[in-house]
Amino acid sequence: MKVCKFGGTSLASAEQMQKVANIVMSDAERKIVVVSAPGKRFKEDTKVTDLLIALGDKALANEDVTDALQRVVSRYEQIANDLNLSKDVVNIIKDDLLSRLATKEEGEQKFSDLIKASGEDNNAKLFSYYLQSLGVDANYVDPKEAGLFVSKDYGNAQVLPEAYDHLYELRNRKGILIFPGFFGYTPDGELVTFSRGGSDITGSIVASAVDAELYENFTDVDSVFVANPNVVEDPVEIEELTYREMRELSYAGFSVFHDEALIPAFKKGVPVCIKNTNNPTAKGTMIVNERNYLINPIIGIASESGFSTIYVRKYLMNREVGFGRHLLEIIEDEGLSYEHMPSGIDDTSIILKGDQLTPEMEERIVARIKEDLDVDDVHVEHDFAMVMIVGEGMKEMVGIAAKATEALANVGVNIYMINQGSSEVSIVFGIIDADADKAVQELYNNFFVETKDPVA
Amino acid sequence: MKVCKFGGTSLASAEQMQKVANIVMSDAERKIVVVSAPGKRFKEDTKVTDLLIALGDKALANEDVTDALQRVVSRYEQIANDLNLSKDVVNIIKDDLLSRLATKEEGEQKFSDLIKASGEDNNAKLFSYYLQSLGVDANYVDPKEAGLFVSKDYGNAQVLPEAYDHLYELRNRKGILIFPGFFGYTPDGELVTFSRGGSDITGSIVASAVDAELYENFTDVDSVFVANPNVVEDPVEIEELTYREMRELSYAGFSVFHDEALIPAFKKGVPVCIKNTNNPTAKGTMIVNERNYLINPIIGIASESGFSTIYVRKYLMNREVGFGRHLLEIIEDEGLSYEHMPSGIDDTSIILKGDQLTPEMEERIVARIKEDLDVDDVHVEHDFAMVMIVGEGMKEMVGIAAKATEALANVGVNIYMINQGSSEVSIVFGIIDADADKAVQELYNNFFVETKDPVA
User: Which residues of B are documented as binding site for substrate?
Assistant: First the structure.
């Protein structure tokens, strides 16, 4: 049994829905289909989820919602028309939206989640209706009735353990099941959404719960690439990578996957395949537990800009038991999360996302570190990029760091920080923002250019 | 005005004392001479300080001290005889020791410091007596009378700020001043020693206090080498390096200098010269505030064995505010000090000296981390070496990391950790112990072999 999830662009129009229907019907193992809300049809288009947020905001501001509501309904209406479906389904969707809008007084966050979630919910109904019109035994699944129970954290629901047992029962249902992504219900029946992009989370939870042989995540790219196509021209495709590699890559500049989405599949060991709705015969990228690391010890190069560093120097710092802990306490106290803490003998740097800092906060932190820790020097520097090479194979291979640092030296990039933990899934280089693109390009040249074959 | 300090081997015998006298008399700027206790004359010899520790232990155990006392007195006696000095000075030393031994009841730590400090104190008297016998206007200085005030931390005295003002007055005294190293007095007159090797500290304090133009530290090597001569054959000499570079090197395997010794000189900016008593015309090694980094961005390669690593992995670790702080709290709580904490996205390693850990402690720490932090994996690994390349010039130079990692790859050394902070005085490579020597040798080959000129 396979669970497939289709993203917003895969379900944005009648034409896209036809592709999805063909994909679903072409493989009898595709039993459960998790759907997103209709996404963008073209670059300047607006996603239905964003239309819904605007509609909810207007309602809460007690403004007239007629136009905003019509914009949402029109999207479904156009798909239904183009698919030659009866007007009934559009009326069902419109009534559903009106009944949601009527609950405005029950609380802002609750209302907001309810409105947002309608995007996926109604699209699931529409798609199910469409499949039925093709003679397919398709059935919309209500997440409440199926028991997708979550915590009551509006906009950031966490799945509850019992949900997995409930959802396991989906295996026994007949036909193809159309499951709306993005939301679940508290045990007392209140709708709560996952964090944004949460249809990936739904798919991963359902795939894990029914013990799927494969979780197919359909999007609009043929595969994950070893480097950002906006930086490197026509980069090599990744055939297979591990959960941990995907996680490191998605962290730094690879936006294919929602960070948390993989957890349920990862914990259950369900393999994930990223495929293209517009080119379903392309092999896609497999995300697995283990791969053969010998062929390609390195699987990808990621880069992210906008880091700052808080540099602290104190003679004999390393003799002071508790220095690092005290420093991190100040960082935590200011509500900051940090990425790395490389250290020398007498100095240490805290590397963190720069957008967390304001000039006032910087001044206060510097003053606190100076005062509490009696340091010789403390200052903040900005505009660093973290460039990361990722691959589980580097652990067993000699010379990876040499190859990477040689690439950076080749193009005159100065390295301000290197961080390689004992896990060796990645090496991180801190360089200045302005050097990031040429660093990624040259790392790509050094690690991937000879082959040009898809890597696995 | 120069302050010179002579180590134990420089004052271990009459022959050595003659060399020191010649050095002192050959330069009229050498005004203040800080002396250690007599050290080893040959490999199997025992330092006077160690004889004194044995003597003190015997006294505290209420055993007969006659032999132990005689062994100490004999060392001074032989030097006095060989220098044709009168027996008076030996009697003065013997009486001094007897009067110290008589204070046994005043407290163990106090007594122990008093006995140990006699090694330097009596050697200063003896050397002063010898210089006088040569017609030199030499004067022993009593640190109490001169005002070298320290905190009452037995065996680990910290200099008090007022000491610098008192000692400044030494500038106005006549003749050559012979100052015993290793100890000072609390403001209420109690003798307390510095940590072991503390004559370097005395020299550095005095040089700073009198605002010396140079602090000469005489030992038994011509200079500091860029790598350990026990690993690399006939390594290049260092002509000049900075305080920070010396500090990083002395931390990891370079035992030339006592860690804390440089602080006073460093804070005042007094340059330090390391010279050889047995070859005083050799240029020695200068330790300065700034050097020209362009010629030799790297100044040395150090290595230390016996590190362990506590590896921790948890999915989405980096999202958990306070994770690093909490982890370090456990480490601190167990009384451990750590060296580095490299981190990936979902994992982090604590690298620390392995001799701090017992199997029971390891088990307890692993259990605590598992329980308190709910991690996916935590385990301890042993037998790592930290190899460090040091040089303030690497900050401005592209390609240093490439050159270093290339060297390690050349000889098949796998890198388990790289740590380079934003200060860039050093890069640390974590490798397995067994690879340390070949790593140092090849790094030496890559960075220093072309030149073979002394580096600065």
Answer: 49, 120
